[in-house]
Specification:
elongated, two-stranded antiparallel sheet, alpha+beta, Alpha-Beta Plaits, four-stranded mixed sheet, 119 residues, single chain, 6 strands, 38% strand, 28% helix
Length: 119
């Protein structure tokens, strides 16, 4: 499934994986975020830290009547204020995606899958 935009010059199709990769890049630049996490927990409740080529595994993109809805799964650094980091992630993702793609975001849901000590 892809997002389609119609302009006076033609049609633009944006894949959900492209949106997820862009979102992953934005999220990993935020202070306090160690990395993206997989949506599925590994055995014993550990979350897998994703590499840059697999960011789309940690993001769910849904198209709704009100716009796009994103579910973002992250791992945060130990000692950061979780509510502040999550709020900043939501603001930055909404701003960058709306500015870049010119699409309306209805929700950015952030799920903290774990906390890691930053070495």
């Amino acid at each position: 499934m892809s997002i389609e935009k119609v302009t006076n010059l033609g049609n633009i199709n944006i894949s959900e994986e492209a949106i997820a990769s862009l979102t992953g890049g934005v999220v990993t630049e935020c202070y306090g975020v160690v990395g993206m996490a997989s949506r599925k927990f590994l055995r014993d409740g550990w979350a897998e830290l994703l590499k840059i080529e697999n960011f789309s595994k940690g993001i769910v993109v849904r198209k709704t009547d009100n716009g796009l809805e994103l579910d973002v799964y992250v791992i945060l650094g130990y000692g950061v204020k979780i509510s502040e980091v999550v709020s900043e992630v939501q603001k930055k993702v909404k701003y960058v995606l709306e500015k870049t793609l010119q699409l309306e975001l209805s929700a950015v849901n952030v799920y903290v899958q774990g906390v890691r000590v930053i070495g």
